[in-house]
User: Which sequence fits this backbone?
């Protein structure tokens, strides 16, 4: 019999190894499964539990997880864990970069995103765009000023994907980032980062590479 109260106490105290945390999650969904072996196998292929929960079905299968029930459950659990983070709070450039890799990696069409945040990183406005919709980065200056004023934000994070090629900024990417940075500064708003993600899940962060400061 699983002592769930004891498990909660251990989780709250941070006294469990990654394999134990993952096993607890799997035990509650598949109580009769060989979850210790599955947890150990997955953690040999992924660096941590969070990486497992953000993995795609193909990545899980490549790690030897062939049972579709487990694959579906882990993907569902990962989406439940990350949706709140996406909708509520951004904890700096590194967190934002990982968040955008989960959102944009493997997309077969061009997409972009922007997040307006408060001083403490709470998201006050977020929006995703596709190549078929109006692109935030092409909005005129008056519209950008209006958004900053309307949502009384402290900063902004933006991201987009490259369907083909490397996750590296183009000349147009640099020009757009520089323009937005200048517009934000006029409104007293900080451009915290611009992240680019390619189809392979590789990423480039203007903030983490120091490129943002040079624009």
Assistant:
């Amino acid at each position: 019999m699983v002592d769930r109260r004891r498990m909660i106490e251990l989780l709250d105290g941070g006294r469990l190894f990654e394999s134990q945390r993952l096993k607890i999650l799997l035990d509650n969904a598949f109580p009769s499964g060989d979850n210790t072996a599955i947890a150990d196998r997955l953690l040999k292929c992924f660096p941590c539990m969070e990486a497992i929960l953000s993995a795609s079905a193909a990545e899980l299968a490549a790690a030897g997880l062939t049972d579709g029930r487990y694959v579906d459950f882990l993907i569902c659990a990962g989406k439940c864990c990350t949706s709140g983070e996406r909708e509520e709070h951004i904890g700096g450039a590194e967190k934002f970069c990982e968040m955008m890799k989960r959102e944009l990696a493997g997309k077969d069409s061009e997409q972009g995103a922007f997040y307006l945040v408060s001083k403490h990183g709470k998201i006050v406005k977020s929006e995703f765009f596709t190549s078929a919709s109006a692109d935030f980065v092409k909005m005129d200056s008056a519209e950008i000023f209006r958004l900053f004023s309307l949502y009384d934000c402290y900063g902004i994070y933006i991201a987009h994907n490259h369907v083909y090629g490397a996750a590296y900024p183009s000349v147009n990417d640099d020009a757009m980032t520089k323009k937005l940075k200048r517009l934000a500064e006029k409104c007293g708003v900080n451009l915290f980062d611009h992240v680019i993600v390619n189809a392979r899940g590789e990423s480039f962060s203007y903030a983490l590479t120091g490129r943002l400061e040079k624009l």
About this structure: Residues 4-87 form one domain. The chain has two domains: 4-87, 89-214. DSSP finds ten helices and five strands in the chain.
